[in-house]
Amino acid sequence: MPRLSAAERREQLAEAAIRVMIRDGVAETTTRAVVAEAGVPLGAFHYCFRSKEELFETVIERIMERNLPPAGLAHPPGATPFEKVRAILHAYWEQVLARPAEHLVTYEVTQYALRRPGLADLARRQYRHYLEVNRAHLESMARAAGLAWTVDLAVLARHGLGVLDGLTLTWLIDRDDAQALAALDEYARYLASVAEPLPEAGGPAA
Question: Which of 2, 84, 108, 161 has fewest C-beta within 10 Å?
Fold first, then answer.
């Protein structure tokens, strides 16, 4: 077995856990199942993670990281705020379409945590993390599109989380691509309505 750093071993175990969760479900994802999937001894798990809860948090972070849209998305000259926002949201949606099983795991983790005494805080931390990521994503979206939001960012992040979270779950249930994209475009129209273009570099301020 190759020698890996603690960070590399954590990554290996997190990826193994994702595979087990997709295949067997979150409730059946034991530490023994994860180390068996990774092909490492049980001691490797306890070296890298203090608890299964910590592993679940890492799993959620890994899934979120690779499902964010690409940074620095290019926009054609003259694109409207709606077109810019829409392009970024569609880039996010492509990640959902590419890895639906991983998104299903995140919802299953939430339900699993809420139904077990002592794990409810995992679900709260999960959604606090979602809010932080959504806020950062909105800030990144505004920079990439040359926009400024006219709504309080904390409120906009919570609103956006509700829209995208619900839209993703609905699509996982019915797989209606056309309706999902129509709803996504409606959200893009809303975001464009609460955004204003930033002054051009070197140009006069509004």
Answer: 2
What does the chain come to in residues? 206
Report DSSP letters for 51-94, one per residue: -HHHHHHHHHHHHHHHHSPPTT----TT--HHHHHHHHHHHHHH
**For residue 149, what are the β-bridge partners?**
195
pTM, two decimals, is 0.81
Reported as a single tens digit per residue, the pLDDT across 115-169 is: 887 788 888 888 998 899 889 889 988 888 889 999 999 999 999 999 999 999 9
Residue 143 backbone phi and psi in degrees, to 5: -65, -45
Distance CA 60, CA 103 (A): 9
